[in-house]
Write a structure and sequence with these properties.
With about 350 residues, the protein is an alpha+beta fold. The chain has 2 domains: about 170 residues, no CATH class; about 150 residues, no CATH class. It is built from 10 helices and 8 strands. The strands form 2 sheets. It has a 4-stranded antiparallel sheet with strand order 1-2-3-4, with helices on one face. A hairpin with a 5-residue loop joins strand 7 and strand 8. The chain is globular, with a radius of gyration of 23 Å.
């Protein structure tokens, strides 16, 4: 999740654990601890693909954070006087640190909760920024600063509301998942890999991807859609997924395939091979796109160090269509799924 959300979550958790001992500085400590795991973004792993797949790694490991919380508690207790007992202080620090990766695991990106074990958790029930999750935390934090005698209780209310919304996101995911399986039943797409994720800032409109060899299908389903003939039909747009054209393999691409569970697109643009993680983003706004090879002749390719492609700016014409589709208007599917190619622009190589 975004840094504001993680800071608000950390501050709220700290307030609840501190209880009657909570003070404004407790909220600051909790906010700092809540954002601490994301400092790994400042670590360079040598290339943009490695930076992508190794983010939310060791710094988001429950094993690492538990150990670090004990160390931090011991240091804090030694050099500062505290009204909290050692156990309560450790619980506060550990809770602020651990809730960060646990919340991240509900997003699409994936979180290595059990690093160094090679396991990534991505429930994909909430978008990386969702105001309906964050606002209750922020509102109650502000209220707690105004009524400091009720600081812990107010923050607890914010946590309860946001947690209920998180549970709701799982329920919404389950509803859409059932719709998709009902839709593809008795079709050639049955048993094909299916990926479902919420669209930006909500848990009402969901994006669906189904892989089918060198093609993939993209569709949208809203919880506000109306039934037609007893079902919730999904209109699909067929896309070209492409295939790997080189004889030699690429370690970087293999890492990206594993990171994305093989939801990868291969595309040739301006004699350059672009690989894209199809899970993150929507329509033509797919931010994780990398140039990994260039064509040297009609049939020959040369691997190059990965270069990340600059993200496309959202076109205003798509925003009304996205909103109308969220409200259940399926007539805008054609506009929503339209893709316009734009020139290849790469960012500076890491």
């Amino acid at each position: 999740m975004d840094s504001i959300t993680q800071a608000a979550l950390g501050a709220s958790v700290a307030a609840v654990v501190a209880g009657r001992h909570c003070k404004p500085k407790t909220l600051l400590v909790g906010a700092a601890l809540g954002t601490l795991p994301d400092l790994d973004v400042f670590i360079s792993y040598g290339d943009p693909i490695s930076d992508t797949v190794k983010h939310r790694g060791f710094s988001h490991s429950l094993f690492v954070l538990l150990s670090f919380s004990l160390l931090l508690t011991a240091l804090w207790s030694r050099f500062r006087l505290n009204v909290l007992s050692f156990n309560r202080l450790w619980l506060l620090i550990a809770a602020c640190l651990l809730t960060h990766p646990l919340l991240d695991s509900f997003t699409t990106y994936g979180t290595q909760l059990f690093w160094p074990l090679d396991v990534s958790v991505a429930i994909s029930s909430i978008f990386i920024i969702d105001p309906l999750y964050t606002l209750p935390l922020l509102v109650m934090l502000i209220a707690s600063l105004l009524w400091q005698e009720k600081m812990a209780k107010l923050c607890g209310v914010g946590l309860l509301i946001s947690s209920c919304y998180l549970v709701w996101s799982i329920a919404a995911y389950s509803i859409i998942n059932q719709r998709v399986h009902d839709e593809v039943k008795n079709t050639p797409l049955v048993n094909k890999p299916i990926f479902i994720s919420p669209t930006p800032f909500n848990t009402v409109l969901w994006r669906i991807i189904i892989l089918d060899g060198n093609k993939y299908y993209e569709g949208f389903s809203s919880l506000l859609d109306s039934k037609k003939y007893g079902e919730y039909p999904i209109q699909w747009a067929q896309r070209e997924r492409g295939s790997w054209p080189l004889e030699q393999t690429s370690v970087h691409v293999d890492d990206l395939k594993k990171f994305s569970n093989n939801y990868i697109q291969y595309k040739i643009i301006d004699d350059q091979l672009v690989v894209t993680d199809l899970r993150l983003g929507l329509i033509e706004y797919l931010p994780f796109r990398f140039v990994v090879a260039k064509r040297t002749s009609q049939k020959d390719w040369q691997l190059i160090p990965p270069v990340r492609i600059e993200e496309r700016k959202v076109k205003p014409k798509h925003l009304p269509a996205l909103w109308l589709r969220l409200l259940g208007n399926q007539d805008v599917n054609a506009d929503l799924c339209h893709i316009n190619e734009c020139p290849l622009v790469t960012t500076s190589q890491s």
